[in-house]
Structure formats: C-alpha cells, structure tokens
Write a structure and sequence with these properties.
Helices cover about 65% and strands about 0% of the residues. The chain is an all-alpha fold and about 325 residues long.
Amino acid sequence: MVMLSRLVELGGFPEMRGHEFFTAYLHLLETHSYTYSANSEEKDPYAGELLQLTRCVFQTPAVSHTHFEPIHLSQMFECVCTLGGSDVKLGAEVTESLCLLFGFLLSGAVVYESAALLRRQRVTEVCRTLTRTVGTEHQAECAEGFLKVALKAEAAVVVQKAGDGETAAKKSCKSAPKLMSKTTETSAAEGDMRAGSDVWAVVNSRLEELLTFLISDGPETKQTLCALEGLALILHLAALCSAPTSSSPLLWLPSETLGRSLKSCQAVLERGPLPASNQDYFQSAVRATVRVLDSVLYLTSKYTPTETNIPDSLFAVHP
C-alpha cells in the first residue's frame, strides 16, 4: 500500500490498471480484521497505510470521477454501503476510509448515472440503518460520517432545485406578476429539509423518538445519557449542514423543536444524580448539553426575532 500511494503521488492514478487496483482495494476493505479490546494498545491492522492510500487516490485535486470506470465506482459504492451499514467492528482507520469514500461517491453524479432512484434509495436505506443506532450504547462507527455526507449531498440538491425555481420564477414574474405569491409559498415549502430530504426525514424521526424518551419521567439510566448524546449529535449535524449555501436558507429544525431539545436537557440535568454522587454521569450530561446549546445557538442565529419563540429561561439549563 505504501508503494501504491507513492506511485499515485508521483504519476497519478494508473487508469490502465484500474481493474487490478479496485480488485485489490475492495478486497482489503471487505476482508479487514480488526480485533477490538478496551484495554488493547494494538494499532489498526493497516497502521494508517489504508487511509493514506485512500486519501491519495480519492482525495486529491488531480483525481476526479472521470479517472475511474463506472463499473468500478458502482462496485465500490455497494461495498462501502454494505460495510458502513453493517454491525461489524471496523476500527478508526477503516471507518474514516469508508466515510471518505462515501463522500467521494456522493460528491459527483457518476454514481447516480444508472438506476438513479435505486442508488438514492440505497443511500437512504443505509442511513436509516445507521440512524437507528444514534442515541444507543452501540452507535455505529460510520453513523456520524455517513449521515453528514448524505445530508450535505441532499442539501446541495435542494439548493440547486431552489435556485432553478428562483430563476424560472423571475422569468415568469416578468410576464405573470400574479404568480409571485404562489411561487414564494412553493419556495418556502421546498426549503424545509424535512420534506426535501429523505435522509433528514429519517434523522428527524429519530430525533423525535429521542426527545420523547428524554422528556419522559422515567429514572435516569445509561440509556438516558446515550439518548442525550444522540440528541446532541443530530443537532450538531443540523448546524453543520445549515451553513449558508444560498440566498434562500434551508430549514432543518423549527424553533419549537429546538425549544423541546433544550427542555429535554433541562429535564435530564434536573432528574439526574447530584455531581457528588455520580460525577462521571453529571460531567457527560453537561458536555452533551453544551453541544446541544452550541447547535441551538447557531441554528437560531439564522432566524429573525419573530421566528424565534424559544423562552430565554430555557437557555439556563442548570440543575
């Protein structure tokens, strides 16, 4: 792998040997052996070489989708989706490599050229599997990375469609001014990611499940802490993907949902053990709460004063 990385760095991807490369590369991904032990100091089996090779081939400005045969990209797409959605222990290096590959595959239209609907459904299916693990003790290693990639890809599609709609609307308005109000309503609906993104609809559904669990009056358990961390992750993804991308910002979460998120943090801290009795639990809960607050503040900064109806008192989520 070191030699391959060096060859790619020096002369670019060997397109004439593409079949041999992908056969060997996919074999490495599919047959990796990672023995996990909480007390083990053993490094990942590839000692960073797999990740380095992945970056050399799929994350350099000189390499694009056009350097690879569609059949090889399709094979890699299926391999990445299968491994990423599996419950196999992957390890940090393989996980990062898979997330990088997933991002590369979704960054261009090549992977969707044939059977586009089936490919999109495959992405949604994998993300649904990963989303089910968010907020549990056994969250999938690829969950955050895959969801971030998929959400950004779908957001880009929504923004592009909105841009095309705005262009068409401007042309229409010159000849038909009466259509302006109808066009505005349509654009607003298209900007809601819960309707515009299949993956976000899945993630949002999981968010509602976690909020319902956290606000319930049940006793505090380890699952409560996992659910709070899952909530923090989902809000972080929303904040991360809501970076300004167009003149028409996308709506990821309404202020009502953000308010309930803060209430859930408040409920967990109030019901939880005192810091002196269980310091580890308390510190973990506070860290997750800070992440939630950070995301909420970022998301609400995009709202106008009339759109933000979160009571100021909720920002004081101390026990």
